Hints:
This protein is of the alpha+beta class.
Amino acid sequence: MMGRVHQSAVRVVVAAAVSLCFVVLSVAAPMSGADDDYSLYISVDDTKVGIVSGNLTAAVTRDWPRIVYWHSEDPFTPTFEVSFPRMFMFNDTDADGVFARSEMLGVSFLDSNHVLWNFSAVDQGFSTSMGAFARFNMTTHLSIYRSLEDETVTLSDWAIVTFGFCIAENDVTYENAAGSYVVDGKVSLSVDVSLDVLRQVNSTCIALEQRVEGGGSASMFVIDDAGGQVEASGLIDEREFGENYTHRMVNADGPLQRVSVAKDDGTVQATYEWASLASCNRSSNTTQLVPATSYYTDGVGLTIDTAYAAVEDGATIAFGGIIGLDEGGFVGRMRDWVMEYLPWVAVSVAAVTAMVALFVWRVKIKRGRTEGPRQ
Length: 375
């Protein structure tokens, strides 16, 4: 009788082991990756333009210039966000070039409560250099309000701002006066900003506000500049530290400024980059504007203010940016996750299997004692 009990327990253990092998082999099999059969998918509705391009899935919202994006393949991906909520007019009273709230003379809101955004049709196609691509833009007229609290219009139709978005299958090289840079296909989206000034304002500078947020455990921001790397936690609200809560970012030597979104352990998962120079086009000539950038955290994410010297009416300020994913920070395929945690998975399943086998064995023993010897 005891031999039959042991045989039953052994059969349970063997069955569990076979099941474990089947699960591991099934999960470890490669998922359908972005490089196996690339396709660019665009969807348009009343709230957003949706994009699926390789390992990048993104939504560009219609309520204000905002890109919400995540990894298409990674089962544990957080959601990231880059947005452009406001522009500020200010006088640089301390002559440091950096925007401070105390220097503000007016604000221009970019959300749909204050402006009406016009979306172009999505232009999709194929070219030798870009591969499959899609591009579109959103445009609106901006007015200036007295302050963040007092939304009295002080200047209507001050400027026209256009945000252009482009996604491509292949890596595409762009350039500005500081050099060339590459927008990675399948994991990056380029953003071009153009501000056409219609009426001159009574201020010396303007600043564009940019917001960067990470979801889940991706709450750390790594700021790259000419002075090195600085880490800032998005969970800390630096506005509580008094009026001088902003930090200056030293301009990078290359064509782009960069902020990375990282997990608590330092693993970088997403990036936002913008041009270290802006082109200022006037009727007679073209010059380069060097932005002065400051940043702070507010308990939710990172706010970046990029300031430019104000220009007269009839001029256009243009610069570019990139939102993207860092593939090194993602699993990408379930197989990689299984291989990384295989010892933990094996030990856990083995422990569960042993517990089940022990439970079955004890039930068999108890049942044998209750029924007594067979005649």
